[in-house]
Structure formats: C-alpha cells, structure tokens
RNA sequence: GCUGCUGUAGCUCAGAGGUAGAGCACUCCCUUGGUAAGGGAGAGGUCGAGAGUUCAAUUCUCUCCAGCAGCACCA
C-alpha cells in the first residue's frame, strides 16, 4: 500500500495509507476527536470526512468550534434536511437548489399551492424528526448520463437541468440520507444528528425564478441556522435591533420624510429631513468645487428626440416617465387628457443627466486645453422603476444624483479615475464610512469598441484602484456595452448591499451626440466621457447614513442639534438667550419651555435623537451656565454659556470646514 | 413586473356579517418639577379604493392601488 504524508496545522507530519479518510485520521488521533469531527480542510479545500485522500497534503480536522467550516456545513445540511422534510410531507413537490446564505440557507421548490406560515411549522417539526433519526449521510460519484437518467426517471426536471449545467470536468456527486436523495458537491456532516435541532428557524416563504427565468416561478423557503441555541438567539436579537435602525422607521420617528400612495417611490421631505439633505448637499458642493468641478443645471422635461439620439429611448423607454403635451391646446376649456395627436410632443422626464451635459459641453468649441472638463450637477432624475423594486428611500422613482461627467482624452482616464477614488474615499471617510466595497466590472460579451481600446481603458481603471491600495472585487463581463466601470457599495442595517458611488468610462455617448474638441494638432477629436457619482443619490445615501448611525447622525448633520430645555418657567428668558447665542454661531438650536418635567423633556428629545440637550434651571440662570447632556450618555456637565457656544459652534462645522 | 403576505385613529396594534376599540402621540386643565414617561379630562376613524354577494359588508368574493419579503430589473 502506498504511503502518503499528511501535515497537521502544528507542522507535524505523519504517514498514512493512501486513500485514508479524514475520519480515519481523526480516529487515529483520539476517540473524542473522531466523535466531534465534522469535516476537514485538505490542501485548502473543504473536505468531507468520508472522502479519501490520495496524495501528500496538509490537513486540519474541524469540529463545531471552527466557526466558518462548521456554519458552512450546518447550513448546507439544514438545506438538505429541509428539502427532505418538504418532500416527505408533499411528495409531489419538485426540488431545485438550496445554497447557503450569510446567516442560513434557502431552498427553492416548485409546487402548485403556496406554502403557508402553518406549513413552515410543520416543516420545522419534520426537520427535527429527521435530525433526531441520526440518518447517516452517504455520497457517491456518478457518471453524468446515469445521474441524468436517474432524475428523469424520478421526475425531477430541475435536477436534470442542473446535471446539464455542471461543468464537463466536475464530478457529479450524489447524496443520500435516510431514503432521500439530492445532487450535491458536498462536503457534508456524517449524519443528520450532527445538526443542532434547537439552533435553526425557518424565516419565511418568498418567490424566486429558476436561473433568472421569469416564466418559472418557484417558492423559496429560507431559514437561519447556527451552531447552538445561543447563537440563534443572538441573531434574532440582532434582527430586532436592525429593525429599529431601519431608515423607514427612523424617517417617521425622527420626522425626516414620508411617502404616500399618490407618489409611489418619491419622497416628501419634511423640515428635519430636508435639513439633512441640504446640509449634505452644501458639503458636497464645497467638496466638488475644491475638486475642480463646475456645477451646471439642466432641464427636467426633455423631448424624446434627445433620448433617441443618445440611444436611451430604444433601451429604456419603458422605464421612463413620459410627458405628452398637446401643444395646440389654447383654451381653459380643453380637457388635458385629450390630445391632438398631430400637435402632441412626447417628452421624457430625464432619467439621467449625461445627454444634457453633452448639450452643455457642445455649446461653443472646446479645445484640448479645456480637458479634462469636469461638469457636475445635483441632477434630479425620474425613472419608472418596477413596483417590486421600490424600497423606502433607497430605491425610488424620483431622486437626485450627485452626478458629474468628465470630458477627457483616453490618456487622462487613469489620472481622473485615481482622482475620483481619492475624492470618494475622502468624502466617505468624512461621512463615517471607512468600510465600502469596490467592484470592478469589465468587458461584457456584447460590446462595442476595439480590443486594444478595452485593454487600455480597463488597464487604466485597474492601475487607478491599485494606486490607492484598496481591495476590489472583480466582476468579469459586468461592464456596460461601451466601457468598464467601478461601483462602490455600502451596507444597510441588515447587511443588504447598495450601490452608491460609480465611475464609468464611456466613449459611446460623445460619439452619438457628436461631442468633440480641437486637439493640439488642430484636428477635431472625440473626447471620452466619464460618468461618476460619489454618493450616488441623496435619497439612497441618506437612507444608508440613517441606518449606519441608527439615526444618531453626527452633530453637523443632525437636523435638530440642540434643545434648550427649561426646568422651571423662571428660566424661560435665559433659555431664549442661550438659543439665540447658539443660533448666532450656526447651531440648530430650539427652546423647549413647555410646562413639562425635565424627565419628560429629556426622554422625548432622546427618543427624537437630538444629540445635545441643555437643561436650564434656577442655578444655571444665576451662574450663566448650562447643564449639558449628550445623547446616549447618562452624566451631565455644567458648562459656562460662552464655552458651550464655542464648543457646539465648532462641532456644528462640516468636517471640511474644521 | 413575478410569487406570497399585509392594509382599521398620527404611530403600534386588537376586533367581529348588524356601520368600531386599546396604549402612546395630540388638545385643555391641575402640577414649577433637576436629567429617559406626574395626574385628570377631551377630541380624533368613508376600517386603502371600486364593484359584487347579502335585508345588512370595514368583515365574504372579485378588480385595482399602495406597502412588506424575496426574485427579476437597476442607464
């Protein structure tokens, strides 16, 4: 028998017969390890305890203590056990796929009747039965045709499709526990009893589609699963906390904005929310000015001709708000819904700013000396987003981008890209986001332009990201048909990621809209256009900002910064004086001289997320001080009026002005 | 847009085939109280919209609208 050498994490190596399994190795080390073992990592690959090892390798045996592999395995097998439970209860249900997710798993089923909440309870109970049965898991590698035939015979069309989707060189691994079978590459636990029956919960049913095919509706049951009950409990607590941070809830509680049926996907900003919005906008305007951008403003209602010329009409007309105007209308008696076709002009609310910016660029001749030309707009756009896509103020139909387009030469792209990443990093940091993800989307299959040009432009972006020393995720084939892009992602309260910033290279639109410049050699040339947004849209970014801070916005952004609260009515005059002094240095301060106890006022303004409460009673009046209390802190501080005005005045400055 | 669920007072929710309730918030009165809810009284609803079944619909059925979760989409 051939011997192989296995190296353990501590560096020691031992020799075993070739074909030894990690289960054998664990048993060889100790009885208790053999019992506790759940999987192994062999040469960096997550390995089933039952799979043979045939060559020299490094090995680490995992138990439940090893969080990452343990959770991976548990969730994976929960998915299988759930699918089995479903098929045992409803044998006519077709199974599809059931991957592991961030906190659990889901499994998609094809079943004519909808699953109900009561069904979920029944499934959970059945899952516990299966776990208690401690059915051993068995896997076999099968020949592709045999597996295909097997699923044909068993009436599992989705599995047949899956077999066909498995790459040529990959093994087809069949998996059983009890009498139940699935197709799965593994690895797996050794028996169903290794699953913690008290550490999972089915979270709900939703719809899904088979590999993006909208004609095939499936039902997705998702669950969360952990190593033990405590971890599950901690997760449920996290969910409750996250719900309190939801921007839709805080938007109401803090009186920031509302939305209503008559304007789905559009925001009614209240005074508090609009203060946040305009404060952020003022900040961005200063940053952009310093960054070498010129600000412009362009029309909302634009004739379809421009969208046809830009190419957007063809591709996106169904997602545009169309405004038809009968220009022959002349009298007050005309019914606005009746149109004289001949004289009707079809416009679209602008869904994006770029074509308009090219119109501004195209006014007058441009020289190579004008490039790079950075044109910014807080551009209000409208897109008829599918109803199911709307989500609070994060995904809306009316929004304002902090948009800009940089007209430049191909050679300037890298420098402009690096500049932009610096700009964005600086802004995100000042707004409290050190943590964001960059995704680099490269040339798709269907594209325009030469390979040399793609090589050059992709290279420019890649060099620019590398220059700032940040990690990025490569998304091959996800670029637009005309150029590669970088997208910048932030995370909301429950971990959903949202695209905020973006940077796209576009040689196409200048071509379509005939933008050009006179080069140093006197020839007319075509500029590149770089589309970029830093926050993305004010709506989405403010949504993220609210969730990130749980509503406790940094002082300079907080809509209500200071409440000056009287303790007795004798303090009222002095309260007014304090409010005036703070207002004079740019602090948003308000008086609360209502006939209420200080406890009541402190509670109310704390709930309202006001960062600073200044309480004023008889003592403060005589001493000309204030009693300062910060949100989230229990202790108070007595500060002289002049000092508090200075302190809060400084704090009210935006980070770029300090 | 698709699948499923939801829609009752400003908010969170209860309710039943015979035209509505609680807590908080709101208004007024009493209370001038020292850092997260003092006490009392009052006002407030076309039960998302429309149609149907019924003697009778907020309740049952259908259609539409909006919201929620996921999918699909996201220039």
Structural overview:
The chain has 658 residues and is α+β, with helices and mostly antiparallel strands. Helices cover 35% and strands 27% of the residues. It has an eight-stranded mixed β-sheet. Strands 2-1-5-3-4 form a five-stranded mixed β-sheet, with helices on both faces. Strands 29-28-30-31-32 form a five-stranded mixed β-sheet, with helices on both faces. The mean pLDDT is 95. It binds one RNA strand of 75 nucleotides through strand 11, strand 12, helix 11 and helix 18.
What's this entry about, in short?
The protein is built from 20 helices and 32 strands.
Ordered list of secondary-structure elements with their pairings:
Layout lengths: L2 E5 L5 E5 L4 H8 L1 H6 L2 E4 L2 E3 L9 E6 L4 H23 L4 E2 L8 E7 L6 H16 L4 E6 L1 H10 L3 H9 L6 E6 L2 E4 L16 E11 L2 E13 L3 H17 L1 H7 L3 E2 L9 E2 L1 H20 L3 E2 L5 E3 H7 L1 H5 L5 E5 L17 E6 L4 H8 L11 E10 L15 E11 L4 H18 L6 E5 L9 H18 L4 E3 L9 E7 L5 E10 L1 H5 L4 E2 L5 E2 L2 E10 H11 L13 E5 L5 H13 L4 E4 L5 H10 L4 E5 L1 H6 L1 E6 L5 E5 H11 L7
Helix pairs in contact: 3-4, 5-6, 8-16, 13-14
This protein binds one RNA strand of 75 nucleotides through strand 11, strand 12, helix 11 and helix 18.
């Amino acid at each position: 028998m051939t011997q192989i050498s296995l190296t353990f994490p501590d560096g020691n190596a031992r020799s075993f017969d070739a074909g030894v399994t990690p289960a054998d190795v664990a048993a060889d080390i100790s009885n208790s390890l053999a019992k506790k073992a759940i999987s192994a990592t062999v040469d960096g690959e997550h390995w089933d305890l039952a799979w043979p090892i045939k060559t020299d390798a490094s090995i680490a045996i995992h138990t439940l203590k090893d969080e990452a592999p343990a959770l991976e395995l548990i969730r994976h097998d929960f998915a299988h056990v759930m699918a089995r439970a479903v098929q045992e209860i409803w044998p006519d249900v077709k199974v599809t796929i059931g991957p592991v997710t961030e906190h659990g798993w889901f499994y998609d089923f094809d079943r004519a009747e909808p699953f109900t909440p009561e069904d979920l309870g029944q499934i959970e109970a059945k899952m516990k039965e299966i776990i208690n049965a401690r059915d051993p898991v068995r896997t076999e590698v099968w020949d592709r045709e045999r597996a295909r035939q097997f699923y044909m015979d068993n009436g599992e069309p989705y599995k047949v499709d899956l077999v066909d989707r498995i790459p040529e060189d990959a093994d087809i691994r069949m998996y059983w526990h009890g009498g139940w079978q699935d197709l799965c590459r593994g690895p797996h636990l050794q028996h169903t009893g290794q699953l913690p029956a008290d550490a999972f919960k089915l979270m709900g049913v939703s719809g899904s589609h088979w590999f993006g095919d909208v004609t095939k509706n499936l039902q997705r049951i998702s669950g969360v699963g952990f190593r033990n009950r405590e971890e599950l409990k901690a997760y449920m607590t996290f969910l409750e906390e996250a719900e309190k941070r939801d921007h839709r809830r805080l938007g109401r509680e803090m009186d920031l904005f509302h939305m209503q049926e008559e304007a789905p996907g559009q925001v009614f900003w209240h005074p508090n929310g609009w203060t946040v919005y305009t404060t952020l906008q003022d900040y961005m305007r200063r940053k952009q000015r310093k960054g070498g951008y010129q600000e412009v403003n362009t029309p909302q209602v634009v004739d379809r001709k421009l969208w046809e010329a830009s190419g957007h009409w063809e591709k996106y007309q169904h997602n545009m708000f169309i405004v038809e105007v009968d220009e022959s209308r002349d009298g007050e008696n005309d019914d606005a819904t009746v149109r004289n076709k001949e004289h009707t002009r079809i416009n679209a609310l602008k869904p994006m700013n770029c074509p308009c910016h090219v119109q501004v660029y195209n006014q007058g001749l441009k020289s190579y000396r004008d490039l790079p030309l950075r044109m910014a707009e807080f551009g209000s756009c409208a897109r008829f987003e599918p109803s199911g896509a709307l989500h609070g103020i994060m995904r809306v139909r009316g929004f304002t981008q902090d948009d800009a387009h940089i007209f430049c030469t191909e050679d300037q792209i890298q420098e402009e890209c690096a500049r932009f990443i610096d700009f964005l990093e600086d802004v995100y940091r000042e707004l409290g986001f050190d943590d964001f993800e960059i995704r680099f989307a490269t040339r798709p299959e269907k594209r325009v332009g030469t390979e040399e040009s793609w090589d050059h432009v992709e290279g420019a972006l890649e060099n620019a990201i590398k220059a700032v020393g940040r990690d990025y995720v490569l998304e091959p084939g996800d670029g637009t048909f005309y150029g590669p892009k970088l997208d910048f992602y932030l995370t909301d309260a429950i971990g959903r990621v949202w695209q905020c910033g973006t940077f796209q290279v576009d040689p196409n639109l200048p071509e379509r809209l005939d933008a050009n410049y006179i080069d140093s050699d006197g020839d007319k040339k075509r500029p590149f256009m770089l589309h970029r947004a830093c926050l993305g849209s004010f709506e989405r970014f403010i949504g993220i900002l609210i969730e990130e801070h749980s509503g406790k916005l940094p002082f300079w952004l907080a809509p209500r910064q200071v409440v000056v609260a009287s303790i007795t009515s004798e303090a009222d005059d002095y309260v007014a004086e304090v409010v005036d002094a703070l207002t004079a240095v740019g602090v948003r301060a308000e008086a609360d001289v209502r006939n209420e106890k200080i406890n009541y006022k402190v509670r109310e303004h704390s709930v309202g997320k006001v960062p600073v409460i200044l309480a004023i009673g008889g003592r403060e009046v005589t001493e000309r001080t204030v009693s300062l209390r910060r949100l989230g802190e229990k202790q108070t501080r007595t500060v002289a009026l002049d000092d508090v005005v200075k302190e809060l005045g400084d704090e009210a400055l935006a980070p770029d002005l300090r």
